[in-house]
Amino acid sequence: MLEVSVFNTPRRGPKPKLGTRDALVQAGLALLHAEGYAATGIQGIVESVGVPKGSFYNHFTSKEAFGAEVIDAYFDRAHGRLRAFLSDTDRVPLDRLRAYFDDLIEGLRAGGFVKGCLMGNFSAEVADHSPLIRDHLTAHFETWGGLFEVCIAAAQDDGTVGQQVTAAVLARFLLSAWEGALLRMRAEKSDAPLIEFTQVVFGRLLGP
Hints:
Layout: H1 20-35, H2 42-49, H3 53-59, H4 63-86, H5 93-110, H6 118-125, H7 131-157, H8 167-188, H9 192-205
Helix pairs in contact: 1-2, 1-4, 4-5, 4-7, 5-7, 5-9, 7-8, 8-9
């Protein structure tokens, strides 16, 4: 994970209210995921928390720095969910991975096929223009792919996945294919791209 020292040096001013920082990040998670980076203003974020706009700058040097921390918070939550599935020793490695994606698909279906992945959304909207946000995204995608790689390598060891392609390459392709499927899902408002993803990945790609 990246170490973000800019977040630990607030500007001079009134002592920040305990809990305001976390409340702003959680509000940002909801608003940036629903509305997008460009369409979400700082005023709307602080109003949703019920604090003055000046409070925002007691905690964050800029909207860009805030966006990077929102990405960190989003990934921390997603990371914990992924680890919970991949550490399920009651399932063989490949079944753990399939259960993870099945759970994601159920959540997306229940949510009406909107929002998608916040990291994917930021990659499309902001990464070209913000080195800071791009660095955070890159670090988290590498961690995410690394967890896939460990699981796929274990499946290769037990013989359920072939070794013609390395676990590292398969993991990176899996992540890229998933993010692409999410974009199509949002455009089509359908689970068809997600179902096709699982059919190809678990029916063909990750096989003996």
